Amino acid sequence: MIFTIQNFPLTDMSLENRKECLRTLKKLDIKTGTGIMVESPHQTLENIADDFVFMQEIKPEMIGIGPFLPHKDTPFANEKKGELELTLILISILRLIFPLSLIPATTALGTIKEGGREMGILCGANVVMPNLSPMSVRKKYLLYNDKLATGTESAEGVKSLRINMENIGYILTGMRGDFDINRHS
């Protein structure tokens, strides 16, 4: 199916417009994702609660959540990192609210603490996404400073990831991570 968008306000990046875009995608029966960076600058617990209410409205198929990690080349370079513990608590809450959604255990969790990604899985995340980009281009996608495994996580590093997951009682399937409402029925 091809969609043509006319007179669409592509320059309006307001929160309300972005929410409306997600609502429109849901009406078109397109799978959606949303999420939060935990403890990003100026974020409050009330903001997080509002985000959870919105997530309940749109019922996203994927929810990205990870601690805020500053990048040296941004206005937030000197801001405090988000906390692992709060992120893990929020992952657990999201899992209870959205039992079928895809919730990645992000590399940010592993960056903030060794074993953090595995902790995310144990708290309710159900997806890991290794960086399989060629080493030659990996540094072009540094979302934050000291990103986990920027030198080792590649096709060769999947074996290590597999072992880490098996050590906590999980098995990597190697399957695509597409959302399928029928996978649990």
Structural write-up:
- The protein has 185 residues and is mainly alpha-helical.
- 35% of the residues lie in helices and 6% in strands.
- The chain contains six helices and two strands.
- The longest helix has 14 residues, at 45-58.
- The protein is globular and about 40 Å long.
- The relative contact order is 0.11.
- Strand order in the largest sheet: 1-2
Structural class: mainly alpha
Poorly predicted ranges (pLDDT <50, ≥5 residues)? Answer: none
Q: What is the name of the CATH class?
A: Alpha Beta
Radius of gyration equals: 17 Å
Helix count equals 6
Q: Strand content of the residues, in percent?
A: 5-15%
CATH homologous superfamily title: Aldolase class I
Q: Quick check: average pLDDT? A: 85
Any idea what the CATH architecture is? Alpha-Beta Barrel
CATH topology annotation: TIM Barrel
Terminus-to-terminus distance:
28 Å
Report the biggest beta sheet as strand number plus sense, adding barrel if it closes. Answer: 2 strands, parallel
| Beta-strand segment tally | 2
Silhouette: globular
Count of the separate structural domains: 1
Task: Tell me briefly what this model is.
With 185 residues, the chain is mainly α.
List the helices and strands and how they pair.
Elements: H1 15-27, E1 33-38, H2 45-58, E2 62-67, H3 84-97, H4 107-112, H5 116-122, H6 158-167
Parallel strand pairs: 1-2
Task: Write a concise keyword list for the protein shown above.
185 residues, mainly alpha, TIM Barrel, 35% helix
